Amino acid sequence: MKIHPTSIISADVVLENDVEIGPYCNIQGRVKIGQGTFVEGHVTIGSRFGVVEIGKNNHISPGAVIGGPPQDISYKAEPTKLIIGDNNIIREFSTLNIATSKGEGITSVGNNCYFMAYSHVGHDCLIGNNVIVANNSHFGGHCIVEDNVVIGGVCAFNQFSKIGKNSFVAGSSIVNKDILPFSRAQGNYAVVRATNKVGLLRKGFSKDDVNNIHKAIRIVIMGSATLEEAYKRIEDECKPSENISYLVNFIKSSKRGIAIARNAGTNSAAEE
Predict the structure, then answer these.
(1) Active-site residue, from 50, 122, 124, 214
(2) CB atoms within 10 A of CB 2
(3) Would you say residue 101 has pLDDT above 80?
(4) Do 127 and 244 lie in a common domain?
(5) Same domain, 117 and 205
(6) pLDDT tens digits for 176-234?
(7) Do β-strands 120-121 and 114-115 pair in parallel, antiparallel, or remain unpaired?
């Protein structure tokens, strides 16, 4: 364990083996940092009231603020949490907040994520595994980002937005509705434009699986007057699979509505 003498570590902090803390860091409160994690200089972790748990082999760059209070005026110093998994990279001046007491009381980040400079993860967000977030993209409170999502730079996500797994959101997009899994979305406000074919192939999906998913997504965003019609066509025209079932269930469970272009036939149904 290496702790630079200029850093301030409170008595409540637990550091496991091989943790390295660089110069001028301030780590306070109920913070636990896992084995092999490297915290560079001028990083702030924890607060007087929250609980922060950081896993193994993470790398936190200068200026990051991890586990600060939620940016929510209703927060009254409840002991809520931020839980970060293993092998994540958090670049310069990124901010990840603890949760409010309105939900489960947890903001969470999975494993193998990459948050580029000036990223923001708001209170109560649930970020999955293998998520890449480019510079200056921000998640409002209670967002859900599923596994293997890629976010371009300078994107903004409204509170309670849900981003489906294996999707891609292009840079400078503003997201105010749910993004379909396996899709590519872009715009202000963002809408699903296409299937994330290249991303899926890179992740090991077979060409047959990609084509099957593509057919289902086109039925939803272009080829049906209502979502009920889309479900029926997907059942009739697409090969049954775990991915197709997941896509349909994602749409059915959406609370904000699906991000579909206004000139698509399914728009009104998607907002029901």
Answers:
(1) 124
(2) 10
(3) yes
(4) no
(5) no
(6) 999 999 999 999 999 999 999 999 999 999 999 999 999 999 999 997 889 999 999 99
(7) unpaired
State yes or no: is 34 an active-site residue.
Answer: no
- Is 120 assigned a catalytic role? no
Is 124 tagged catalytic? yes
Range of the domain at 216: 201-270
pLDDT for residue 262: 52
Average per-residue pLDDT in the chain? 95
Residue 166 within a domain: no
Q: Is residue 257 exposed (0-12), middle (13-18) or buried (19+ Cβ within 10 Å)?
A: middle
Average pLDDT over residues 66-87: 97
Judge if 137 and 12 occupy the same domain: yes
Catalytic site residue from 34, 42, 85, 123: 123
**Does residue 182 fall inside a structural domain?**
no
